[in-house]
Amino acid sequence: MQSEKILLIAGEVSGDAHAAELVRAIHAEKPATKFYGIGGDELKALGMEIFFHISEMAFLGIGEIIKHLPFIFRVKKTLMDWAKKEKPDCVILVDYPGFNLRIAKSLHEIGVPVVYYISPQLWAWGQKRVEIIRRNIDRMIVLFPFEEKFYSENGIKATYVGHPLVDKHSKYLPDKPRKINKGNVTLGLLPGSRKQEVTTLLPKMIETAVRLYHDNLVDHVEIVRVEHMPEEFYINLVAAAPKIFTIVCKPLRECLPKYDAVMVASGTATLECGYYAVPMLIVYHVNPLTYFLGKRLVKVKNIGLVNIVAEKQVAVELIQHDFTVDKAFSVMKQILDPENNLQLRTDLSIIKDKLGDPGASSRAANVVTDLLNDEKHD
To answer: Per the count of CB atoms within 10 A, which of 125, 185, 306, 366 is most buried?
Structure first.
């Protein structure tokens, strides 16, 4: 029997991790399925043929995208040429909407069934992208109940499966909330997965952590680096700082239970911190043009995913010019107050219930395999 071919496009670290869980679940149903496309180390380890690695795709903001347009066009042409020649049974697009919504249209036009896993944040960006999805996406798989409701209200069928991080993290949850133990306070710094993010955010995070250390509020600081970025890059940033910093390259499930608080780049990591109920300060800074355009387009009050999922502010956000060392120090001082820290953990405990039951990746795989089976019978 001929094995199915699936084109898969996951352009970021979080997408690589979630896509890897999905691939495992599809292989459990259809072990001969072959995967090709854009991904990272986790997908590569599962045997996917990587045309472009996520480390090549980490563009942040309008300026970066414009600078890399020739490369982006080459990536799209490579994928489209492959799809026209190989005729994959379907494509799975994982998050990464700036690129994926554009290639979805081209793939749909040549007759490739399109599955979108991890919806773009349409409820934040408005109606234009809704029409793109209505015309070009055959199956939409969403992680949150409010997304399913949003699509339903816009006349688009979406399947809610829950969040895949529940499967990866549920067995690592501590039995009881961590309490601040003076003299042994550990702060985690999570500066993101793109080089530009780390370059922009980490120096201010480090400076804030040093001030907290000098005020006897923090004893140890761990910087969590991503695998595709060399350790030397981080070492250079902490070279002049006190010897309280450790650079680690581990899954967050191994790190978060031992942190009293974190400073975290806005993104999926905020949700993981929320799942473990770790009090956090969310920070972000982008190119001024990107920020200006984003402010005009984005329709939500908070940008932190943990706040959006909680449907209220459970973590302070310092974005763009608000992210200064003085402001970050002031917020972190409050977060590290023992009584306030415990209350923040209580506030964050709602996140675990918002992410659904275990088995999200298997439920998402069922949507894909049902589509593949339907295509065979057409």
So the answer is: 306
